[in-house]
Amino acid sequence: MTDARVQETPGPSGAPLHLRIREDIERRIRSGAWPPGHRVPFETELMGQYGCARMTVSKAMTALVEAGLIVRRKRAGSFVARPKVHAPVLNIPDIQAEIEARGEAYAFRLLARVVRDADREAPGEVELASGGKLLALDGVHDAGGRPFALERRLVALAASPQMDAEDFAEITPGAWLLEHVAWTEAESRISAVNANAEVARLLALDEGAACLMVDRRTWREGRGVTRVRQIFPGDAYDLVARFGPSA
């Protein structure tokens, strides 16, 4: 019966089946076996291939959409996305060091600290947690006594269990991670946003003010370490990239 497949079971590698489906599809895309524009099998086809429920396939497909690897077209199906050009604009910055280098006083205010399970409806959180707990941290970086950036961070305690005991009175979460957990891969996405009521209050802005959001994820040998969203007032932060001619 179809209902017997609702519970997701691990694949042979021990990873949840939706992760294995995602990895299989991603491997075909990155290897070039499925070029841009190639139609990905329909969800019903993948359900039959992997012997699983639609929910499991949907989790895998949603994660691939979020990663920019596939696009969904209404009534047509899912297709391999055409690659976008990404420029390496940012390293992993130490905000405290940058502010102090400008000669301004720095402070970090921790607003919230919670250890929790991943939201099962958010594939990105489930992948980051790797079966463990998440440490959720909200805080504000101040420069010269004024709010400089709002930070909302999730940390996989499976990757950094010692962080659970840190109170961040003497060190910021980002600086702690830079010191204690070496990362091997990072991704930054940069976008313009307008301050909602909460962001405006925390950053001392007018509601609707222009802001810059940096959404960054880091991994260590394929396992998630942290995901952080930092929101800066539009006039407080510059992104600078310096390039030379290619060989």
From TrEMBL:
One of its GO terms (biological process) is L-histidine metabolic process. The keyword Transcription applies. CDD domains: WHTH_GntR. Residues 15-83 form the HTH gntR-type domain. Keywords: DNA-binding, Transcription, Transcription regulation. InterPro entries: Bact_HTH_transcr_reg (IPR050679), Chorismate_lyase_/UTRA_dom_sf (IPR028978), His_ut_repres (IPR010248), Tscrpt_reg_HTH_GntR (IPR000524), UTRA (IPR011663), WH-like_DNA-bd_sf (IPR036388), WH_DNA-bd_sf (IPR036390). The keyword Transcription regulation applies. One of its GO terms (molecular function) is DNA-binding transcription factor activity. It holds the Pfam family UTRA. This is Histidine utilization repressor. It comes from Caulobacter segnis (strain ATCC 21756 / DSM 7131 / JCM 7823 / NBRC 15250 / LMG 17158 / TK0059). The lineage of its organism: Bacteria, Pseudomonadati, Pseudomonadota, Alphaproteobacteria, Caulobacterales.
